[in-house]
Amino acid sequence: MPTVMPLLTEPELQALYQRARSAAADVSLQNLLEQRQAGDVASRYRGAGLDYAESRPYQPGDEPRFMHWSVTARTGKPHVKQFREERRPAIFILLDRRKAMRFGTRVRLKAAQAARVAALAAFAATQQGWAVSGVILELQPHWFPASTDTHAVWEFVHQCAATCPPLPSTDEPALASILPLINAQLVRGTHVYLLSDFFDLDAACEAHILQLLQHHPLFTVQVLDSAECELPAAGRLNLQGLDGVTHRVNLADPLLREQFRQQAAALHEGQAQRLRGWGCHYSQLLTDVDAPELAVPLPHGMGT
C-alpha cells in the first residue's frame, strides 16, 4: 500500500461519522446511562459540587462553610460534608502511528485501522457532548487539547487519518515515555483510549498505566494484522524485521508456520493478560475487521 496515500479518505471519514451516529442510536451498543454535560455525571470522585456524598472528620484547612453541624453535634467531633464532583465527560485518544503500525497484509494498515477507531470514538464522543483530546504517537508526537467544538474534533480526526510521515531513521518515542505526559494533563475521570499494537509494552509501562487507572477508565485496543498471528503458506520469502535485518524464510514449511502461530499466540495472550490484569478494558482488533464499533466500546454513556 503506497505510504503517500492518507490512511483514510474523506468519504471513509464521512461514513465513520454516520456509523458513530448509528452506534449511538443502537441501544445494544450502549451499556450504561448516557452522559451529556457537566453535572449530568454522578462522579465517583469527591470534591466541589452540589450533590452531597458523605461526611468525614474535620481536617485542618477544611472550609468552615462545609461543616456538617448535625453530625458534629451527634458524634461530638467536628465533621465536614463532601460532595460529588461535577464533571464534563471527556475522552483522550492515543493513536500509535509508529513504524510497527505501518504494516498490513489484508485490507488496510494497522495504523489505518487504529485511525478508524480513533475517528469512531471521537465522533461518538462529540455527538454526546463530550470533550475530545488526544495525541498522535510518531517521531514527533502531535498533541490536541480538549475541545467540544465539532470543527476542532474534525481537525483532530483529519490529522489521525492523514498520510504518515516518511519512516524515521532515528528512534521513535517509546510508549512508556508518552504515558506519564498523558497522565499529567488529564482531568480526573477522562476516558482514555490507547490504540496500538503494544509491541513495546514493557515493565516501564506498568507504573504509568497503573497511575492512569487510579483516576481514569482505560480502554486498550490492540491492533494486529493476520500475518502477525498466522503466517500464510507463501513459499520462500525475504522478510525484513524492524531492525532492518533481512531473513530468508520458507513459509511453505508447516512446522515453521505452526511454531510461529504458537509463539505469536503466546505473545499476544501475554500482552492481553498484562493489560487486563492491571485493570484495563482490553480489545483485540484485526486489520480486516470492518466494524470496529462491534468490538470496541464507544463513549456512549459510559460511567465514570
Describe this structure in words.
- The chain has 304 residues and is an alpha/beta fold.
- It contains 7 helices and 11 strands.
- The strands form 3 sheets. It has a 6-stranded mixed beta sheet with strand order 6-5-4-7-8-11, sandwiched between helices. Strands 1-3-2 form a 3-stranded antiparallel beta sheet.
- Helix 1 crosses helix 3 (110-127).
- The two termini are 40 Å apart.
Write the layout of secondary structure elements.
Blueprint: H1 10-25, E1 46-47, E2 51-57, H2 69-75, E3 79-84, E4 90-96, H3 110-127, E5 131-137, E6 142-147, H4 150-161, H5 175-183, E7 191-196, H6 203-215, E8 218-224, E9 236-240, E10 246-250, H7 254-278, E11 281-286
Parallel strand pairs: 4-5, 4-7, 7-8, 8-11
Antiparallel strand pairs: 1-3, 2-3, 5-6, 9-10
